[in-house]
Amino acid sequence: MVIEVVTCRHCGSDDVLKNGFAPNNGKQKYLCRACCGPQSRQDPSHNGYTQEERKEEILRAYQEERSSLRGLRRTFGVSPTTVLGWLKKR
Q: Which of 17, 31, 32, 64 could disulfide-link to 8, CB 3.0 to 4.6 Å?
């Protein structure tokens, strides 16, 4: 029998509870009772891209490909307000 000790990524405490499964990848979610911080997942993985790369891709689609703001919402799942804010900062 193997016992796996899970610790909180935020405070390092081992006082964590299982708290369901993530809907997108089925990984176990945990909730820390010590810090009551955000939920953490078992073996969290990072995105395959940086936020800056994703932002540039969306802005390129808007400017060069002439995609509408509604189309960007459907395709990328980003709010039109967010895209307009990015454009104003440029």
A: 32
The 3-state DSSP class for residue 60 equals: helix
Length of the chain: 90
Buried b (16+ CB within 10 A) or exposed e, 61-85: bbeeeebeeeebeeebebeeeebee
CA–CA separation, 87 and 90 (whole Å): 5
Tokens describing residue 22: 């993530």
Mean pLDDT for back-to-back runs of 10 residues, the chain (90 residues): 79 84 81 77 63 88 90 89 87
Residue 77 contacts residue 58 (beta carbons within 8 Å): no
Q: What is the dihedral of CA 24, 28, 29, 34, to 10 degrees?
A: -170
